[in-house]
Design a protein that fits this description.
By secondary structure, the protein is of the alpha/beta class. Helix content is 30%, strand content 27%. The structure holds uridine-diphosphate-N-acetylglucosamine (UD1).
Length: 426
């Protein structure tokens, strides 16, 4: 199994190209189930999770073709064609490896009249139930059965009538599933307290390009007028705001100056605000974001929240950066329980962090030192890389399959800006 070796201390400088957003891609791909015509997605990141999702789509009888990109290019284009659905079952083996597989439930139900998806099971960053996905789909008229670890959703004869659902908790995935179900319902559906992350807007934009009728895009109240059929479309995945934010932290912790080419500043304002209050200079233009670190870093209090609040997916990376701030910072995680698994690993590198429930107190500045550390989940892994870039000596990060799920060619991108990082076979 591969591991990453990082020798810290290099000041990062140069340009990092930002890839298409993983979390957007994972909800755009299942949209191909909604139409017999081809859906072509450009700017898809090359990631293990995308390959996994492609595999899942093939399992349903969807043909997929990767188009026209050279191996050395970042990103790729995938054409998906669901002319005929040959199976409506997402088996345990595929779902187990990729939690986002639950996102096929809604579109498969809408298209085929029924869908059977293995329950995703536990997850490293909390229980992550799917009750809201099921309740929303039920509100649109589906019948839900749970048997032998599988959830089966069935539409009445003549199709789903549609309906209203008020989310008790903001959920990105459940909003996505609900949207992909409602677009083909017979009537109008309304979603209240829906998630409004940029990835949801990306999903709505693709659905509209396919002929869906959605009002309120970008707000938490969405009205979806069901249509009889959807057409194919060609669509470019939005830039990855979490990848961009992660490299911003990487640049800042080394005192570096990096341009994040292709990053969309508008989608990452909460992260930009956090970085500026820490003392990082952030420049924004239509084609990217510039990061510079002129002086000492200041401690801050940060709380994660649904969009437009600070993304929980940025919490771990900002925590690493705050290890270098001059004073005590407070980080509150409100979205997931058990999302501080990077703390003991950062402590092994010399960080001074204490946690109580969902609050972490980071005392800086710490002189970080290289160590052997273990990646636990995707963003936690990135926080270890960030700390390692500023640490004295060598850090070995193991279990990097987590990183390969979410960061396209991580070590190549960091090498581009002068990091001493290499992937080696264990
Ligand atoms: C998505 C993102 C993930 C990000 C998260 C929050 C993808 C593939 N993943 O995950 O990277 O960290 O949004 O921004 O896009 N909840 C329930 N019942 C449900 C669903 C969710 O109680 O049926 C709870 C969760 O336990 C959590 C909260 O709602 O406490 C938010 O979760 P949600 O927004 O659904 O996260 P995901 O869509 O799984």
């Amino acid at each position: 199994m591969d591991k990453l070796i990082i020798r810290g201390g290099n000041r990062l400088s140069g340009t990092i190209p930002i890839s298409g957003a993983k979390n957007a891609a994972l909800t755009l791909i299942p949209c191909a189930l909604l139409t017999e015509e081809a859906v072509t997605l450009r700017n898809l990141p090359r990631l293990a999770d995308i390959d996994g999702f492609q595999h899942l789509m093939n399992q349903f009888g969807v043909t997929t073709a990767i188009q026209g990109t050279r191996p050395e290019d970042f990103g790729r284009t995938m054409r998906l064609e669901a002319t005929r659905i040959t199976s409506s079952v997402a088996p345990y083996d595929l779902v187990r490896k990729m939690r986002a597989s639950i996102l096929v439930l809604g579109p498969m139900l809408a298209r085929a009249g029924e869908a059977t998806v293995s329950m995703p099971g536990g997850c490293a960053i909390g229980n992550r139930p799917i009750d809201l996905h099921l309740k929303a789909i039920e509100a649109f008229g589906a019948q839900i059965e749970l048997t032998q670890g599988y959830v089966k959703a069935i539409a009445p004869d003549g199709g789903l009538p549609g309906g209203d659902f008020d989310f008790p908790v903001v959920s990105v995935g459940a909003t996505e599933n609900a949207l992909m179900t409602a677009v083909l319902a017979n009537g109008t559906s309304r979603l209240f307290n829906a998630a409004r992350e940029p990835e949801i807007v990306d999903l709505c934009n693709l659905l509209v390009a396919m002929g869906a009728e959605i009002e309120g895009i970008g707000t938490s109240d969405l009205t979806i007028h069901g249509v009889k059929r959807l057409n194919g479309a060609t669509y470019a995945v939005m830039p990855d705001r979490i990848e961009a934010g992660s490299y911003a932290c990487a640049a800042a912790i080394t005192g570096g100056a990096v341009r994040l080419e292709g990053a969309k500043a508008n989608d990452m304002q909460a992260t930009i605000h956090a970085l500026r209050s820490i003392g990082v200079e952030v420049g924004e233009d239509a084609k990217g974001v510039d990061i510079a670190t002129p002086g000492a870093l200041s401690p801050v209090d940060l709380t994660t929240a649904p969009y437009p609040g600070l993304a929980t997916d940025m919490q771990a990376q900002l925590m690493s950066l705050l290890c270098k701030a001059d004073g005590a910072s407070v980080l509150k995680e409100t979205i997931f329980e058990n999302r501080f698994m990077h703390v003991p690993e950062l402590a092994r590198m010399g960080a001074d962090i204490s946690t109580e429930g969902r609050t972490a107190i980071v005392k800086g500045p710490s002189s970080l030192t290289g160590a052997e550390v273990m990646a636990t989940d995707l963003r936690a892994s990135m926080s270890l890389i960030i700390a390692a870039l500023a640490a004295e000596g060598e850090t070995t990060v193991r279990r990097i399959y987590h990183l390969d799920r979410g960061y396209e060619r991580l070590e190549e991108k960091l090498q581009l800006v002068g990091a001493d990082i290499e992937r080696v076979d264990d």
